[in-house]
Amino acid sequence: MRPDLRRILRHWTTTHWQVRRAFPHSVLLAIERAIKNAEARHCGELRFVVEAALDGLLLLRGQSARERAIDVFSRLHVWDTERNCGVLIYLLLADRRMEIVADRGIHARVGSQGWDAIGQRMQSAFAAGDFERGAIECIDAVAQHLARHAPASRANELQDAPTLL
What we know:
This protein has helices at residues 5-13, 16-22, 25-39, 56-60, 65-75, 104-127, 131-149, and strands at residues 45-51, 86-92, 97-102, 163-164.
């Protein structure tokens, strides 16, 4: 597979400053509040992660946003919840790609089409530059699935604050 030079350049030029511009402190706090409010309605665990760009070998190997999201899902132990209801919402800013990775307990009930529909709405908001609205609407839509399929019954297992990589 031949490296995509445009993608490599885009990743090299996307900085953490751009992430902070799209997700300033006030937006990160709003996302954290949305996650806390959502988790009060279900036993699922939500993590929201924004990564500016891939670097080094990940980029040169052509790792996709989906593959990276799965790596982050594992690294942050989103899969390690009591009822297998962890959900990662991952944004790779350089690619303008958003991925939702759900643990097997909730994915079996919602399926890929359910997550894809949420992702498309979020990406539309992001394309318009409305990162806060896109993130909050995505969290709410994921929470609706979790409330339907994994009602509240236990304490918070993972941190609610968004993670910037």
